[in-house]
Write a structure and sequence with these properties.
Layout (H helix, E strand, L loop, with lengths): L21 E3 L5 E3 H6 L12 E2 L5 H6 L11
Antiparallel strand pairs: 1-2, 1-3
InterPro entries: DUF1272
Protein name: DUF1272 domain-containing protein
Length: 74
């Protein structure tokens, strides 16, 4: 099950689980669309391809809430 991280690791913008616009690699590193584009859609952590993260909505989001642990350094 995807962790659904709540923010972009590069710029810190919020990325709600029920909204599009997030990109992830196979290790679930998470970036917003502008940052993914700036990174040429390659994860700076592992070198993996950044792909659209699916959304999680409704009953599924309630049963399996997104992570609240922020990844962007404060």
């Amino acid at each position: 099950m995807l962790e659904m991280r709540p923010d972009c690791e590069r710029c810190g913008i919020d990325l709600p689980a029920d909204d599009g616009g997030a990109f992830i690699c196979s290790l679930e590193c998470t970036f917003c669309s502008p940052c993914a584009e700036a990174l040429d859609e390659r994860c700076p952590n592992c070198g993996g391809e950044l792909l659209d993260r699916p959304t999680r909505v409704g009953k599924t989001l309630k049963a399996y809430p997104a992570s609240t642990a922020r990844q962007h350094p404060a």
